[in-house]
Amino acid sequence: MLDEICVAAPAKINLGLKVLPKRQDGFHEIESIFSTIGFADEIIVKPEGKRNTCTVECDLFKLPEQNTITLTYDAFKKLVNEDLPGLKVSIRKKIPSGGGLGGGSSDAAAFLNALCLLCRVTLDREQLNLIASMVGSDVFFFVNCDKSGEGAAIVTGRGEFVEKIQRRKDLHYLLLFPGVHSSTKEAYDLVDKFYESGDKLDYPALADLEGIYNGEVSRWNFVNTFTKVIAGKYPVIEQAILALKKSGALYTDMSGSGSTVFGLFATAEDAIKARNTLSGSWNVCYCV
């Protein structure tokens, strides 16, 4: 068995996120393009402690006893039906918690890759998706990425339907973190109220998403349902979007249920210039 494994857990951006009205079972379906970006947590996995135990530490904050790492460990153990080595998992966070960038889900998928290497187990796609179903909806996307953890896909259903597409590597992002946090529950509650009010948004058709993604960024017309409702409650979201537009972003939106706001720029130099301009007003901003 390997002594230690270190893996990267990339963040994801939502390019458009149509949240459909609540189903009878209380869940919502989505239509979105997910894409990983060059911004990642670092996961260090080391055999340690009693068998069938997994302890997790994070450098920035204390995690709940049950988290995406322990859920993944338990799901893997249940699937392989074997005793597992005790593990100590250290997370060096870069992706902000609750930022709409999929940090916890990406951590889970990266840890699963490390776990397979440590235990010399190969899982097929069906098995990976089964584990994802026991951990969280966004995990489906991350376990369907390539071996480096990178990828892009059209994601539908509750997140379980992942249709891979070619990830663009010519996009230059600037991320702003407005410093507010809306829980997933609050975000979906606000969406439910939005639909109950009779309001509507004009979304591009699901069949057109890939074509839009591969077209000129300045002509993108993606829509995120969460942006309207979250920005309505937290005006700083709209302020961040406007700041990016004024700095030359070709396209801006909020990722997921927020609160990370991103802008796309024509060149890396343009993104860096905007970062240098905005960093005095926004505490946290990154070019990726």
Global Rg: 19 Å
Query: Which quaternary structure do these chains form?
Result: single chain
Structural class: alpha+beta
Largest β-sheet summary: 6 strands, mixed
> Would you identify the regions where 5 or more consecutive residues have pLDDT less than 50?
none
Helix content: 25-40%
Question: How much strand?
Answer: 25-35%
What this model shows, in words?
The chain has 288 residues and is an alpha+beta fold. Helices cover 33% and strands 25% of the residues. It is built from 9 helices and 10 strands. The chain has helices at 68-80, 103-119, 125-135, 139-143, 184-196, 209-213, 225-233, 235-246, 268-278; strands at residues 5-19, 30-47, 54-58, 87-92, 152-157, 161-165, 172-176, 251-254, 261-265, 285-287. Strands 1, 2, 3, 4, 5 and 6 form a 6-stranded mixed β-sheet that branches. A 4-stranded antiparallel β-sheet has the order 8-9-7-10, covered by helices on one side. A hairpin with a 3-residue loop joins strand 5 (152-157) and strand 6 (161-165). Helix 1 (68-80) crosses helix 3 (125-135). The longest helix has 17 residues, at 103-119. The radius of gyration is 19 Å and the shape is globular. It starts with a strand and ends with a strand. The model has no long low-confidence stretch (mean pLDDT 94).
Task: Summarize the structure in short.
The chain has 288 residues and is an alpha+beta fold.
Topology readout:
Elements: E1 5-19, E2 30-47, E3 54-58, H1 68-80, E4 87-92, H2 103-119, H3 125-135, H4 139-143, E5 152-157, E6 161-165, E7 172-176, H5 184-196, H6 209-213, H7 225-233, H8 235-246, E8 251-254, E9 261-265, H9 268-278, E10 285-287
